[in-house]
Each structure stands twice: as structure tokens, then as C-alpha cells.
Amino acid sequence: MKENKLADLSMDLAVSTVKLCENIKGHYSLTNQLERSVTSIGANIREANYASSRADFISKLHISLKECYETEFWFELFVKSELASKEEIKNLYNQCGTIRRLLVASINTARKE
Q1: Which domain range does residue 34 map to?
Q2: Which of 5, 6, 39, 112 is the most exposed place for a label (fewest CB within 10 A)?
Q3: Average model confidence (pLDDT) for the chain?
């Protein structure tokens, strides 16, 4: 089976973020929102692989892109509200940015085909 870089990267990001959230106590509503957005990135990338049309494929990747932006918001909030340190979030934020850039490139390529 062909390796799917976006799927692999999004899974790694989700796992690392879930582990981070396990260590944050007393802020269930915020950690829940972060976990929901970060796991949605990968879920929609996987779903795009079985899209029924090019438009459906692009739509699923677009949802993943929106979830990347939302996830970045939560990462920033966690740092600014001191729920997590800048160092804890830095790598996760960078991983999310990499996924976001790959999604933009994939969407642009799919639109041109």
C-alpha cells in the first residue's frame, strides 16, 4: 500500500496532541475542543482518500485545512493562557503548519487537474 504522507503526519500530530491534553487538568472543555479539531484533520484526510468525486475530494481536504487553522488557534490559546508552555506547543504548531501547507498544495493541485 502506498504511503500517504498527509495521513501519517496528521496521525502523529493527533497522537502527540492527545498526549499533551492528558496532562492538562481542569480545562476539559478546552482540551476537548483541541482534541476534536486536531483529530478531525486526519479523519477528513482519510475520508478524502475515498471521495466519490474530485469535488468531494477537494471538499474533504478543505475541511481538514479549516481544522488546521482551528487547531492552531487552540495551540495559541493554550500558550497565552499558560495551560501549556511555548516549548510544549512549538513542535505541535510547526507540525500543524506543515500539514496546512501540504493541504493547500494538494487542494491547488487537485483544482488544476
Answers
A1: 5-112
A2: 112
A3: 94
Tell me what pLDDT residue 2 has.
Answer: 39
Number of domains into which the chain is organized:
1
Give 91's contacts (C-beta < 8 A, 6+ positions apart): 16
The DSSP secondary-structure symbol of 59 reads H
- 98's grid cell: 506543515
CA-only gyration radius of the chain, Å: 14
CB 42 within 8 A of CB 10: yes
Digit-coded pLDDT (tens) for 69-93: 999 999 999 999 999 999 999 999 9
Q: Is pLDDT at 35 greater than 70 in this prediction?
A: yes
Residue type, 79: V
What is the rounded CA–CA span in Å between residue 61 and residue 109? 12
